[in-house]
């Protein structure tokens, strides 16, 4: 049985920036607490101010190290920063190491930084299904920047682009990332490309190749954003200020051009759709005898209905 939640008091405390209350709200989101709709409704007046920055890239490119460096640079600018790091879940136990928090020990005692690791729990696309609601909690808590670090994407896991105002794609020399970036939408999702580990000998070649491929793929109108390629070394801090400058430049462009609002509307539409589908599945039931879905499935198997007719009748029945 879920513990009762004093939603007004908890939201008031969280929006005042109390870390314990923010953490409690994030836990309620992850657990799918019954009070979640009431919580989200109470957070609405406090949202819409944070700059959400997504960081993605293949495993091993230094996402956590870069995130750690960005947090330090943002704090030097006086900004409050939240980090949502998504770690992969075990397909056997469902648990996760949540190792990203281990790599960000430098900031754990800073009251202006909030770091939370969440498990992907089998959700594809490099994020967690709870990501949109967790980001809303962090936004409402008054953080200026929310950094969302993905599990680590392959060629098709590009969901982070829909969850962020600005998307950073990290690559590293010597890993074939220049070629991988040309595949399956990776070039399309990046607003800023960061070639990390710039102290390696082939870093300049990777930057050059990436800029060439970005140029070949760019068929946009002159007034639209053209992805920026930056070289950095997160481990030493070299180039991090340039990365921040590129992020700020994109954010300014997105606000002035109206793209920021377009992206947020698209993000809200995806979130609403996901919640609606979840509720629809709950109303459909499962394959147990007597359930609406079960009866429709039996009718199709017995040849009494085609699947399209069954689907239409099922939807009509649950309106």
List keywords for this structure.
about 325 residues; alpha/beta; seven-stranded parallel β-sheet; 7 strands; about 45% helix
Task: Give a structural overview.
This protein is α/β, with parallel strands linked by helices and 319 residues long. The protein is built from 13 helices and seven strands. It has helices spanning 7-15, 19-31, 36-43, 63-76, 131-140, 160-163, 177-180, 186-189, 203-217, 240-257, 259-284, 292-301, 307-317; strands spanning 51-57, 81-87, 113-119, 145-149, 166-171, 192-195, 228-231.
Q: Would you identify the regions where 5 or more consecutive residues have pLDDT less than 50?
A: 90-96, 122-127
Q: Name the beta content range.
A: 5-15%
Task: Give the proportion of residues in helices.
Answer: 40-55%
The best one-word shape is: globular
How many helix segments? 13
Distance between the termini: 30 Å
Rounded average pLDDT: 83
Number of strands: 7
Radius of gyration, CA atoms, in whole angstroms = 22 Å
The SS-based structural class is alpha/beta
Helix-strand sequence:
HHHEHEEHEHEHHEHEHHHH
Order of neighbouring strands in the sheet with most strands: 3-2-4-1-5-6-7
Q: What about the largest sheet?
A: 7 strands, parallel
Give a nutshell description of this structure.
This protein is α/β, with parallel strands linked by helices and 319 residues long.
């Amino acid at each position: 049985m879920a513990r009762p939640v004093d939603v007004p008091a908890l939201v008031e405390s969280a929006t005042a920036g109390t870390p314990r209350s923010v953490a409690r709200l994030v836990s309620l989101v992850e657990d799918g607490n019954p009070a979640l709709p009431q919580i989200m409704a109470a957070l609405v007046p406090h949202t819409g101010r944070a700059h959400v920055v997504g960081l993605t890239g293949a495993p091993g490119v230094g996402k956590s190290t870069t995130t750690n460096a960005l947090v330090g640079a943002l704090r030097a600018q006086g900004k409050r920063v939240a980090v949502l790091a998504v770690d992969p879940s075990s397909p056997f136990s469902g648990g996760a190491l949540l190792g990203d928090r281990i790599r960000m020990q430098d900031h754990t005692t800073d009251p202006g930084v909030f770091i939370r690791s969440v498990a992907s729990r089998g959700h594809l696309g490099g994020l967690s299904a709870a990501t949109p609601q967790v980001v809303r909690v962090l936004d409402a808590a008054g953080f200026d920047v929310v950094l969302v670090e993905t599990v680590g994407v392959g060629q098709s896991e590009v969901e982070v682009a829909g969850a962020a105002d600005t998307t950073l794609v990290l690559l590293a020399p010597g890993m074939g990332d220049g070629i991988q970036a040309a595949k399956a939408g990776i070039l399309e999702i990046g607003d800023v490309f960061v070639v990390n580990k710039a102290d390696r000998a082939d870093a300049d070649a990777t930057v050059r190749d990436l800029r060439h491929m970005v140029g070949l793929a760019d068929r946009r109108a002159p007034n639209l954003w053209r992805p920026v390629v930056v070289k950095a070394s997160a481990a030493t801090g070299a180039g991090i200020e340039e990365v921040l400058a590129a992020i700020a430049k994109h954010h300014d462009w997105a606000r002035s051009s109206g793209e920021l609002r377009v992206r947020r509307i698209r993000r809200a539409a995806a979130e609403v759709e996901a919640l609606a589908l979840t509720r629809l599945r709950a109303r459909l039931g499962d394959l147990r005898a007597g359930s609406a879905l079960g009866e429709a499935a039996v009718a199709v198997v017995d040849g009494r209905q085609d699947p399209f007719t069954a689907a239409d009748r099922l939807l009509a029945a649950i309106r």
